[in-house]
Amino acid sequence: MEQNLYDVIIIGSGPAGLTAAIYTTRANLETLIIGGRKWGGQLMLTTEVENFPGFPKGIMGPDLMQNMRKQAEHHGAQLLDVNFTTGDFGKSPFVLTTDDDKTYSAKSVILATGADTKWLGVPGEKEKIGRGVSSCAPCDAAFYRGKNVLVIGGGDSAMEEADVLTKFANHVWIIHRREEFRASDIMQKRIFENPKVTAVWNTEVLEIMGEMKVEKARLKTLGNVLKIKEANQDKSRTLDELGKSIVEKDDSSFTWDFPVEGIFVSIGHVPNTQVLKGIDLDEKGFVKVYDHTKTNNEGVYVAGDVHDTTYKQAVTAASFGCMAALDLEKWLRSK
Exposure of 195 by Cβ count < 10 A (0-12 exposed, 13-18 middle, 19+ buried)? Predict the structure, then answer.
């Protein structure tokens, strides 16, 4: 059964969606947020956030999102803790369906569905998120001051994670499944000039181990010797030289345990665009933008990590939410 006609429906309840709602409600636009059954976005999985403006002593991620939700609701936004399933983004009024088989109509839409970290999917990883496993060095690096950490990945984002971590950690080991990074030359140059970084080639994570927090990672390396690169030099090392021992070995590879206190996963993000039918996406699956925050469909705007392939920060997501709300309001007024 179709509900009343809203001025705007926002799909997503992370920093982008909730900031957009604060702006649309203060513009006296009747606003519905389809927030998801796991509302709040990636910050709900983060511990202390020290880089969001306005909190000099930091704030826990879930507390920050709860504050944003209360602010949006205070100004009149209605937030549903249900998932968006299908919608017709072809023309206004837009009709959207949720997973409790209800439909809602709106004159305009903001897509703020976010992007999820692409995790390794190995045993022990999910349980250790927030307890030694992270996907955001700018968020969590300070918690690893003087500790040894691993960064998993080989692209620019992995290099950036490692670079941030070197300001705090004792040593950063970048684990990569190939024998070269795909990161840009300038990023690799910066990393390999840092004496606190060692790259470990041809290696993948099999398991993350520990009781209440990360204590070690079980790794598998192809070949019969450990190939590494540090201080701009390629080297080969035995595990004995590194003070590590082999758990299992065959003719083509060996498995070994690496004692470590933090693991930063940086193998990419997966934008939540699977249910956004009729919306133009780029080659990586992120929503394309046309003229600031507009999508290919008139009246449909986008904000946050679902289109942002560069910054992926809470504060930039909130900024995009502000921009989308202002663009949308201007479009509605013109109608």
Answer: exposed
